[in-house]
Write a structure and sequence with these properties.
This protein is mainly beta. The strands form seven sheets. Strands 1, 5, 7, 9, 10 and 24 form a six-stranded mixed β-sheet that branches.
Length: about 300
Amino acid sequence: MSFTYSYWRLSAINSTYNVLSIAEIKFYDSGGSQIATTGGTASADDVTFGAASNAFDGNASTFWATSSQATPTSPHWIQYQFPSAVTPATYSIAIRNDILFQCPDSWSLQGSNDGSTWSTIGNYSAPWTSAGQVQTFSVGSFGLGDAFRLLITSTDGTGVCSIVQWTLYDSGGTPISFTDGASSALSVYSGEGTDGSAEAFDGDAATYWASNATPTVASPQWLAFRFNSSGLTVGSFSITARTSNPNQTPHDFTLQKSVDGGATWTDIQSFTAATWTNGATQTFGAARRRARPFIWIIT
């Protein structure tokens, strides 16, 4: 999965101190070479205690810093607009070498074509354990989690929703095994021979999961899988429709992840599927993203 944009922004969602700071942000291509942050423009929503350009000058002794903590309701962002579109595969964040508690705890990577309308590419979080620490993060993955969920708000037609197979893939496109975990769903319709949510993960095209209610924005349905292994990274996923009644297949839905076994959920990205036909499989993730500039937003 790769993305080509001119704008890149970190949006900080949480920080633990009353000031947020970052010493360096670097971007790397798929070969591991650093993408030069020269000739472009750095900016941020708050530069009270350090200019945005300090985070891109290659000097670990300078830093960008705000005057307040980042929170979900009052996020901070820092961005870099490249002179032309670039395709990073990873990025790194370095925190100040003289203090630990001003670094971002959780943030989003966002992209934009025009610098005003943004799409969230991924959500990230990281523990920081020492001043001057540098951590590297992958671009083009849905991030780490031990549980993933489809939150479905409409189907291709009307009535209940159904899925023959929901497959998750790692960043290399290899299917992630469902043998080490458990499935669940908000509701299960038992009137058509289904045994439950596990039917969507058994690899059998003749079985399927179906909800017991019509999904709506106000009352969505969900299908989830919890892995026993922690820290799995999903790069893309596919959904397969029934060979009959394909109009029961999800049309509008959101992929969510959890890092606490499904106790709390975070939206990763929302999707709208093309019209479903009998037995069709659609893949979502890299193949369905449109190229647009990236921006980092720290909330």
